[in-house]
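Structure ticket #2291
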Amino acid sequence: MTSEFVGYRPPPALRGLVAAAVGYRQAGLPPGVHRGLPSPFLTVVLPIDAPLVVCAHADPRQPGGTFETVLGGLHTRPALIAHPGRQEGIQLALTPEGARALLGTPAAALASVDVGLDDVLGVRVTAELLDRVRDAAGWPARFATVEEFLLDHLATDSHAAPEIAEAWRLTVDGGGRLRVAEIAARVGWSERHLTTQFRSETGLGPKEAARVVRFDRARRGLTARVAAGGRPDLAGLAAAAGYADQSHLTRDWRSFSGLSPLQWMAAEFGFVQDDAAVGSAGSAA
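Resolution: structure written out below.
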């Protein structure tokens, strides 16, 4: 079995827009289904070996399909992705600010849906990017190709309201622990106005975003512990991530993934490329 993950750190010009990226290559696995779980980042996938087959999207109203590239918005339910026992590609984690600056669209326009990158950037531009990535020899050349593309498409004059950007930063940097009233007070808005504007920009309400951030940190914490050979320690994980107790953690885990933490670990431990992408990116968002 082959399992290779190569991380990439964005240059300063892309910090806060691209949280991180990872190149992944796996082969010799039993065919199965991977769960794409909610996180504080929009996801871009550039498959190298074969198109991506999405069996079910975060929004159950969206039918499954095959994608040459995938752009997924913020969501609160899992997406199901089939694989034939192998997968290779590059995955990017974009912040909501990155969606505006690099894609020219607010994150809210992509909330809970998966589309082809060509639906946003156009067929010719996307096809050229994918061809260049596939033709590049090795991970450094592939990442250099993606970095050049992103810098070429960076719009420095496209920004969310500074109050929303600050509210998002406080939510992520605070691990989802800050109350909406406290965030609203810090940015100088009423709680109601913040909630309306926050959802209009990101597609999630502040409370939903906080839950997603808290869950994402717990999920990455569990993966890191088990990968290092430690015991899951769900009670300790819940306390560290800001949950009231282990049962609260389990309820949220089931809500976001459809599985308990231990069920998810048993089913998914070999498919955590998104953890490699954003393992240290919480403070970068």
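Closing remark: The radius of gyration is 18 Å.
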